[in-house]
Write a structure and sequence with these properties.
single chain, 331 residues, alpha/beta, 10-stranded mixed β-sheet, 10 strands, binds glutamic acid
């Protein structure tokens, strides 16, 4: 009997201690206070935000997002980490290795559908918001002799990091111009390595799918004479027809500081996806925190200025996370 009552006391104090640790939200999936400063039942305390390579745009924007969540949600810590970008981000998020990720909208869609590079439908992530256009840029040194995509035949071409959206786009663009990866010496390099290798003369051209100005190209243009290559109009027409996520884009002359960047190409849309393991009330608070601190995104990169509540569902290719949906419904 004595043993039993000690056990009871122990269990009671344990449950008191547990109740004291959680600051509310104890009632069956109830949302937390709505102040964005408390955590609820089942919340993920450590949020990893997958970005891309450090010389891209996902990295500064994703790190800024992590900082917003980290500072606005008490008891939640968030970190932005560099990664191989879209395809690997999608897979890692789906496997539960991270909670949020920046990805291209075409790749997010292929993942849910289980098409293209994905062997089966991925079911564990959903959409949060779309961000800004990501331009498919083909960059080369000004005197390389490359004037069009067809000139890439037989050349050493960086086609993006392994598992990046850039890789997927590069292959589709080559195909639309009647080329395949095997017609060139394709190299899997992230933006920073592609830029160093262009500068050193080890590669002839590089595909970069990212918001403009992309850090890697900006830096390269400070020390080398570079140019962007336009895609053939026929190829652009067939790409936009075959893949609904491509839109034609004219890169303006002043997209970069050091050179005339005029070129006609295509763009997809950057977006944020979330793991379905994030509880609805937590996702609601994270979405709210992001929209209430949009200035931090514009300060991180000029493309951050395009993130607005009004456009946050433009080009959204997949279902919204219920927590993000709740926020939009409320606004
Ligand atoms: N869209 C690129 C990719 O997934 C990454 C862009 C970036 O890092 O800004 O390949």
């Amino acid at each position: 009997m004595k043993k039993f009552s000690w056990l009871l006391v122990l269990m009671m104090s344990l449950s008191f201690a547990l109740a004291a640790c959680g600051s509310g939200g104890e009632g069956e999936g109830e949302s937390s206070s709505g102040e964005g400063d408390s955590s609820g039942e089942g919340w993920v305390e450590n949020v990893t935000v997958l970005t891309g390579g450090e010389a891209g745009v996902y990295f500064p924007i994703g790190v800024a997002m992590a900082d917003i969540i980290d500072s606005q949600l008490e008891d939640v810590s968030a970190t932005g980490v560099s990664s191989g970008a879209s395809v690997s981000n999608t897979e890692q998020l789906n496997n539960g290795e991270a909670q949020l990720a920046l990805v291209q909208n075409d790749i997010a869609y292929y993942g849910v559908e289980g098409t293209n590079m994905f062997e089966e439908p991925l079911e564990n992530y959903s959409g949060v918001l779309t961000l800004y256009p990501e331009t498919i840029q083909l960059v080369t040194i000004a005197d390389s002799g490359i004037e069009s995509v067809s000139d890439l035949e037989g050349k050493r071409v960086a086609i993006g990091d392994v598992g990046s959206g850039t890789e997927a786009n590069a292959k589709q663009i080559l195909e639309a111009h009647g080329l395949s990866e095997s017609d060139l010496d394709a190299q899997y390099l992230d933006f920073a390595d592609a830029s160093t290798n262009l500068q050193d003369g080890n590669v002839d051209a590089a595909f970069v799918t990212a918001g403009t100005p992309t850090g890697a190209i900006q830096e390269l243009s400070a020390s080398a004479d570079v140019k962007l290559i336009s895609f053939d109009q026929d190829a652009i027409d067939s790409l936009t027809e075959e893949y609904s996520y491509y839109t034609q884009q004219d890169i303006p002359e002043d997209a970069y500081e050091n050179f005339d960047s005029t070129a006609t190409t295509v763009a997809v849309q950057a977006m944020v996806i979330a793991s379905n393991d994030i509880p609805e009330d937590q996702m609601y608070e994270m979405t709210k925190a992001l929209f209430e601190n949009l200035d931090d995104l514009s300060n991180a990169h000029v493309r951050g200025e395009e993130v607005t509540l009004d456009t946050a569902q433009d080009g959204m290719p997949i279902d919204l996370h219920p927590g993000a949906k709740k926020y939009y419904d409320e606004q």
